[in-house]
User: What shape does this take?
Amino acid sequence: MISFSQAQEAELGYMLNYSYVGFDSARTQYVQELRHSLQEFRGQIVSLGQLDTEGAYQIELSALLSTSNRFGKDVMTLVNLIEQRGSSDTGKVGQLRNALAQLERSLEEEAALGNMRDAKSTQEVLSQYIDDYLQREDETLTSIIRDQMDQLQRQLATSNLPPTEREEISALIEETKAAFDAVAAINAEIADLNVRTWSLSGQSVVPILEQIRADATARKEEGLIELFDAMRQLQTILSVGVGLCVLLGVGGGWAMVQSFSRPILHLASVAQKVSQGDL
Assistant: This one.
């Protein structure tokens, strides 16, 4: 029954490491592990259902299967969105950086001719904000970035450039704005999915496990109680690790999650032994 927590751990591993090992390696290592863990989890639920001859847990076990299926689909959507967003030179991020570079070159040419120097300064500030946004994914910067783009358009509208050149630069500003909006939209989807996938544990898996545990307590099934206690602690530790990653950022969060690795391994061992009948 620890397989669902292992699937969550695989998702966490992907989120923490894809930028270091690359999309292909992260998919190969962590996504395959997640699929395998969810497959094991579903097999364990089916096995429990076969043992439950009285039908006491059929509704709960069906809910756990539904949750695992939704979790798997949401994580795959999350992975696809991350890969669609891309990195410095790929995906939507690559398109944004390319559009920004074209705008920068165009304004540099005009500034060299003594034109639009204020706009060039605005573009430099804009580029710095976008770099900060892409590095930290700080959603508080989105409105600032859009304001900077609007300011560029206003400065362009009051410039003395010929209409043709003005239209070309305006098109580059709009292209940069569209590319940024595409990245921001994907980031918003990723943030929503992150919350949803991890809330599935707290809102669906854990309450069901607690209900089964309460029933097992009434039946005095000590082995089942110990197993679900270990499962519950694993869920809590992993959820705390993810929360810290969100609050402290990937670097700080990863260091904190590392500090949890020893108790996770211990609890996993306990749960595995209990599930095998070693009491």
